[in-house]
Write a structure and sequence with these properties.
Elements: H1 2-11, E1 15-20, H2 41-44, H3 52-57, H4 59-74, H5 80-94, E2 99-103, H6 109-113, E3 118-120, E4 123-130, E5 144-145, H7 152-156, E6 173-177, H8 192-199, E7 202-208, H9 215-227, E8 231-234, E9 248-250, H10 254-265
Parallel strand pairs: 1-2, 1-7, 2-3, 7-8, 8-9
Antiparallel strand pairs: 4-5, 4-6
Helix pairs in contact: 5-10, 8-9
Length: 267
């Protein structure tokens, strides 16, 4: 705990950039993707399901899979780690400092915990978008609140004729998430340009519950290494980060460590 406290205080009013992965939501009952637990998503499912190619070839299979994931997310609640990150943001901003939370997660737990300076770089489970280029509900800027779309018929009978369609143009709707065969620039909501700018400004990077297996973590770690920015990883296993990153690992669960740190920031 003392090491993280020291790093936060040394950052002063400079930008504290926090990056969360699936491990941050594990204590809320959401499985990780590449973790050791039997319920890890990619131990249970084919990675190809989360691709544009699958959406184009077999949208019924993909939609069925995403709805199962969405249902699992809907029953989850923020854990103490989520709430502590919201508190860390409030503390940093109150003293005139800069803070940004970049999450790879599509769940809505950070928002429900109170995080405001938040970028969901992989999209969000509570929104959908049109698949037809040029539609106002499609990329690069459009999307829809998922609660506005009636998915009842497809849930009852998962057939192509009951797939959700765009109320504007009638094309198929898709999950508002970054597929594995897509780029971060696909949609403005991913705010990848802002993530890149923040990497060049951060005085401290804190990684929580990530396997460092996606493009955004590669970008951030590489920038931090080039700039000599302190980088810490909160990881109960203590071995998720590649050795070349030079990341200092804090072997603790975020839901335990982060509330303790916030308590010390408010003596």
């Amino acid at each position: 705990m003392s090491r993280l406290l020291e790093a936060i205080r040394l950052a002063g009013r400079g930008l504290i950039l926090v990056v969360t992965g699936a491990g941050a939501s594990q204590a809320s009952g959401i499985p990780t993707f590449r973790g050791r637990e039997p319920e890890a998503v990619w131990k249970q499912s084919d990675v190809a399901l989360a691709t544009r190619r699958t959406f184009e070839l077999d949208p019924v299979a993909q939609w069925s899979w995403y709805l199962r994931r969405f249902e699992r997310l809907e029953g989850a609640r923020p854990n103490p780690g989520h709430r502590a990150l919201a508190e860390l943001e409030r503390w940093q901003v109150a003293r005139g400092g800069e803070f940004l939370l970049v999450t790879q997660n599509i769940d809505t737990l950070h928002e429900h915990a109170g995080s405001r300076r938040l970028i969901k770089v992989h999209g969000s489970s509570d929104r959908l978008r049109c698949s037809r280029h040029g539609c106002r509900n499609a990329a690069p800027a459009g999307s829809l609140d998922r609660s506005e779309i009636d998915l009842t018929r497809f849930r009852r009978c998962p057939e192509r004729r009951y797939l959700p369609i765009c109320p504007e143009c009638g094309a198929l709707l898709r999950a508002h998430v970054l597929f594995f065969d897509e780029m971060y620039g696909e949609h403005e909501d991913y705010r990848f340009d802002e993530v890149q700018r923040s990497a060049d400004l951060a005085e401290l990077m804190i990684f929580i519950g990530t396997s460092f297996s996606v493009g955004v973590t590669e970008l951030l770690v590489g920038t931090a290494m080039r700039r000599g920015v302190p980088r810490l990883s909160v990881d109960p296993g203590g071995d998720s980060q590649p050795s070349w990153t030079g990341i200092e690992t804090l072997a603790a669960a975020a839901e335990d460590l982060l509330p303790a740190v916030c308590a010390r920031l408010h003596p």
